[in-house]
Write a structure and sequence with these properties.
single chain; 560 residues; alpha/beta; Glutaredoxin; Rossmann fold; Ubiquitin-like (UB roll); four-stranded mixed β-sheet; 21 helices; 15 strands; globular
């Protein structure tokens, strides 16, 4: 692999790759990350064997990609330049796909996406895809994440080269501030202001950290980006590191994500080999090195001070702030922390400009947001939409609605510490502020859909059990508050609750919310408060049911 010594070398290298492109080659893009659980690797192997058997090498190329989004149709594949989408393909389908679709241009109906009884063969016509706007996910599912050349062919590292050669630290931060990019990890704090705070702090060492500790039930947005487009995250970190004056970075990722870890290791080594990581990058005075730190699956390590403790080799437990990481982070040094999706947004802002980016979304929430759409919805998978898209559009237009004859009841937004958004808010335009107004949080992007058969009290109990189990136990309000709320919710779901329990739940929720040390405890009560707010009748019915059962079970009084 060529070592790039100056910025011009990058553009020359890209041109040399373009010269090798063969327009007559059919490329089969198959997801071998999430889809491997449903046989994608076997399908891929069958394709490779058939290509060899029929001497089609050079005419047909297999590309193993990351998540293509429509997980409910797994294993999924697309054929380019035909633009055809096939789902639920098996090994036995492979010879027919080659003979009929690739060689004759015929569509195999049974493998196509269908909606309302209509087969839709082309990706561009499938509502799940056509109604999205992909910025962060633009490469996921359409490049080989283990091949840096494919990223470079799509203008990879061009934004970093532009920053390195023509922009000061201040201009980089100003561009990010003007874009309106907010942290996608949950709180929505302005990224540019965060970078500026770290840049202004004096220090011989500064750290740039990517938070990939994704622990929400049903959430897999960050995992998919790390698996499907790791170089976008690395490039975003490079730009951020240049802006704040950092020479050392960490990507903190769960050990439960082995494919993400593998792809990150490959990507880092490839970037180093090309001279895009290390000392004096592209002949400049800027140096930046990057390591992977694996977490052990503690949900609380998604909180930045707990994450810092984990990187330092300590038990992952939050600490009071201030001091904030910007002034005293890893080993007491200035530290900037953003999540995976935030960093993946950065390169496109510098390629297309902050004005282009800020034109997407709402007045207060710019750009797009990725959601992991799960639960009682036809099309589960990854969805990227502009901020301000309504819940109805996501669930029904993209998600395909509720299976069977069930009705939409609510959506849990923001993970276990998010809130339940009921049907009356289906037309809610989703951004940071509006979601908060209805008792939920944006969170990292988990979106679990529930139909009218779902018990909202049981949902509150389930998420409280998760929060209680994941509490680090350091502070009393979280440790005891979540346990007591769980006890009460369990009692109610068993039909043993009392009318006083609802008031006690509210009281415990408010104390836990206001007195807990970190974000886990401060938001743990959201499912309780939101379900009581919108579904109080379900709590009352379970409690009244107990009362009626007790009265019917009393020994009848006999007349003398």
């Amino acid at each position: 692999m060529k070592h790039l010594k100056i910025p011009d070398d990058l553009s020359k290298y890209k041109k040399s790759l373009e010269a090798k492109h063969r327009p007559d080659t059919t490329r089969i893009f198959i997801c071998t990350t999430g889809c491997r659980a449903l046989g994608a690797e076997e399908v891929c192997k069958a394709f490779k064997n058939e290509i060899t058997k029929q001497s089609l090498a050079g005419k047909i190329e297999m590309v193993e990609t990351g998540c293509q989004g429509l997980c409910t149709r797994a294993p999924v594949l697309t054929l380019e330049p035909l633009g055809i989408f096939y789902g639920r393909a098996t090994e036995t389908d492979v010879p027919e796909i080659i003979s009929r679709t690739i060689q004759k241009g015929e569509v195999i109906d049974r493998l196509c996406y269908s909606e309302a009884g209509k087969r839709i063969p082309y990706v561009r016509d499938i509502p799940f895809y056509s109604k999205q706007k992909k910025i962060v996910l633009k490469n996921c599912g359409s490049i080989d994440p283990r091949n840096i050349n494919e990223y470079i062919l799509r203008d990879g590292y061009a934004a970093f080269a532009k920053v390195l050669t023509s922009m000061t630290q201040e201009k980089v931060i100003d561009e990010i501030k003007n874009s309106g990019l907010r942290g996608r990890g949950g709180a929505g704090y302005p990224t540019g202001i965060k970078w500026e705070a770290v840049r202004k702090v004096q220090g011989d060492i500064k750290y740039m950290v990517c938070n990939g500790d994704e622990g929400d039930p049903g959430a897999f947005m960050d995992r998919a980006v790390l698996e499907g487009d790791p170089h976008a995250v690395i490039e975003g970190m490079l730009i951020g590191a240049y802006a704040i004056g950092s020479q050392k970075g960490f990507i903190y990722v769960r050990a439960e994500y082995p494919i993400a870890v593998e792809h990150l290791k490959i990507a880092i080594e490839q970037a180093k080999s090309l001279g895009l990581l290390g000392n004096n990058i592209l002949g400049s005075n800027f140096s930046f090195d990057l390591d992977i730190k694996m977490g052990a699956g503690a949900f609380v390590c998604g909180e930045e001070t707990a994450l810092i403790a984990s990187i330092e080799g300590k038990r992952g437990m939050p600490r009071p702030r201030p001091p904030y990481p910007a002034t005293s982070g890893i080993w007491g040094k200035p530290t900037n922390i953003n999540n995976v999706e935030t960093f993946a947004n950065v390169p496109v802002i510098f390629l297309k400009g902050s004005e282009w980016y800020k034109a997407i979304g709402t007045e207060s929430s710019k750009g797009t947001k990725i959601f992991a759409l799960a639960g009682n919805v036809k099309n589960t998978g990854l969805v990227e939409v502009p901020m301000g898209t309504t819940l109805r559009e996501i669930v029904f237009d993209i998600g395909g609605g509720i299976p069977g004859r069930k009705k939409f009841k609510a959506a849990q937004m923001g993970g276990p510490s998010g809130g339940c958004v009921p049907a009356q808010h289906l037309d809610l335009a989703i951004d940071y502020e509006t979601v908060k107004e209805v008792g939920a949080i944006m969170g990292s992007g988990g979106l679990i859909v529930m139909d009218d058969s779902t018990s909202m009290v049981e949902i509150a109990r389930y998420f409280m059990e998760f929060c209680q189990d994941e509490s680090c136990g350091k502070c009393v309000p979280c440790r005891i508050g979540t346990k007591r709320m769980l006890d009460i919710l369990t009692r109610i779901t068993k039909g043993e609750g009392t009318k006083e329990d609802i008031g006690l739940l509210k009281e415990l929720a408010e104390v836990t919310k206001t007195a807990s040390l970190c974000g886990l405890g401060q938001t743990a009560a959201n499912p309780v408060l939101s379900t009581i707010r919108y579904c109080l009748n379900e709590y009352e019915e379970l409690i009244d049911k107990k009362g009626s059962q007790s009265s019917t079970q009393q020994t009848p009084v006999t007349q003398p």
